[in-house]
Structure to design on (421 residues):
């Protein structure tokens, strides 16, 4: 008698992430099939959609480390009703933010210019195609408003499942002992 | 045959807690197996009163359970949404004040700050990060110091002064510039008489004072707070 419910639209992206949060998402294993009964995917590394359209839920892994990250993050915020920071990097910059006490120019010079083993004439890449790195790595809540945070590096598959099922059922997700972790 | 006279009691979250006169609220609560969140208090040391995590409501007024003495008939509120919300805010302030990158910290799973944040359900640090830049001191042969994780509880200061008789650590500076220093002319740990066997070497509740060459030895799942939440380990020593 129930009309088939409209599926919720979910977009995902990785900014200054390592794709580990997405791998952990896939760690929900066969529960992915149950999830696909409830949601359909918009822009995501798992689909071929190039830009985020109107969505119910956006999942963001990774902090913000370059100009393109900022554009993508703002596109997600404009289009997603609920935006979730997934993983340590999105939440506090994560291990990539360990570069924050170093001078960006020194880092780039060391990697592309002065480090031993580079071909002669190697220089810091400067093509305008490449997004400029930001001086510092930032948590995503410093750039746009974030509605929920799911910590972990990465959050476990079980934590992601618990979180998503709570959210899809309209409950504020609560992670108990063993599911909430920052490492 | 004489029954020992009944101890006076106070009320902690609707339960009667007996106490010996002179005990603070947190001391009596611990003896009764009740968890009051705390970071700078340790049963072996005098109260410090800096973290404010132990804040409870005593007869309607906020007070630090580590410094307020227990009195007969007191009504003390401990765990509840109002106090735990405030505690979460204090934790968030500590997390953004330092560089708490738990994924690469060898104290992870064994860290009182982290375990307390789990206990209180802290999902995000909420505030903007300070990203302090305090150089690591790896000068000592057996111990490494990462000052960017210090919560300024002064347990190391107290242990080094009161137990080891060495005075290796101190707090220095004012306001947000306050930070831990090492008492040697060079400021380096190697230039003190600090030893890995000192009480101060194993007292740090977070990941500042780390023994070298023993990190990541405990498998994930078996670390202290993997096994049981901090609120279930009230009577065990850190
Ligand atoms: S000291 Fe504790 S809270 Fe800080 S990074 Fe290490 S494990 Fe995390
Ligand atoms: S080094 Fe550790 S024990 Fe010492 S003040 Fe900092 S957090 Fe406390
Ligand atoms: S434990 Fe009471 S103020 Fe820190």
């Amino acid at each position: 008698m129930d009309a088939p419910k409209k599926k919720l639209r979910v977009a995902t992206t990785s900014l200054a992430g390592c794709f580990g949060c997405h791998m952990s998402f896939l760690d929900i294993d066969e529960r992915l099939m149950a999830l696909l009964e409830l949601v359909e995917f918009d822009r995501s590394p798992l689909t071929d959609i190039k830009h985020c359209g109107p969505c119910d839920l956006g999942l963001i892994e990774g902090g913000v480390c370059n100009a393109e990250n900022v554009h993508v993050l703002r596109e997600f915020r404009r289009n997603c009703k609920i935006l979730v920071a997934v993983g340590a990097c999105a939440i506090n910059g994560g291990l990539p933010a360990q570069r924050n006490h170093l001078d960006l120019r020194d880092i780039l010079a060391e990697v592309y210019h002065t480090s031993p083993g580079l071909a002669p004439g190697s220089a810091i890449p400067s093509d305008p195609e490449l997004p400029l790195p930001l001086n510092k790595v930032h948590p995503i809540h410093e750039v746009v408003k974030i509605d929920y945070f799911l910590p972990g590096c990465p959050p476990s598959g079980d934590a992601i499942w618990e979180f998503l099922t709570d959210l899809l059922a309209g409950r504020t997700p609560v992670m108990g002992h063993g599911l909430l972790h920052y490492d | 045959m004489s029954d020992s006279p009944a101890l006076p009691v106070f009320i902690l979250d609707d339960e009667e807690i007996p106490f010996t006169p002179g005990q603070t609220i947190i001391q009596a609560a611990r003896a009764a197996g009740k968890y009051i969140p705390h970071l700078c208090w340790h049963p072996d040391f005098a109260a410090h009163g800096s973290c404010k995590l132990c804040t409870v409501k005593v007869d309607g007024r906020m007070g630090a359970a580590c410094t307020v003495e227990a009195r007969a008939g007191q009504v003390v509120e401990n765990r509840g949404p109002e106090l735990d919300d405030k505690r979460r805010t204090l934790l968030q302030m500590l997390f953004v004040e330092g560089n708490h990158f738990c994924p690469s910290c060898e104290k992870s799973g064994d860290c009182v700050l982290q375990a307390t944040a789990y206990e209180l359900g802290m999902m995000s640090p909420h505030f903007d990060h300070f990203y302090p830049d305090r150089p690591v001191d790896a000068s000592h042969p057996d111990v490494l110091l990462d000052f960017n994780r210090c919560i300024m509880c002064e347990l190391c200061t107290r242990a080094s002064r009161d137990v080891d008789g060495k005075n290796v650590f101190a707090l220095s500076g004012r306001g947000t510039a306050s930070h831990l220093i090492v008492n040697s002319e060079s400021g380096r740990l190697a230039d003190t008489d600090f030893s890995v066997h000192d009480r101060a070497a194993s007292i740090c509740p977070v990941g500042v004072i780390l023994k070298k060459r023993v990190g990541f030895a405990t498998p994930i799942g078996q670390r202290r707070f993997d096994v049981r939440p901090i609120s279930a380990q009230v009577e065990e020593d850190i």
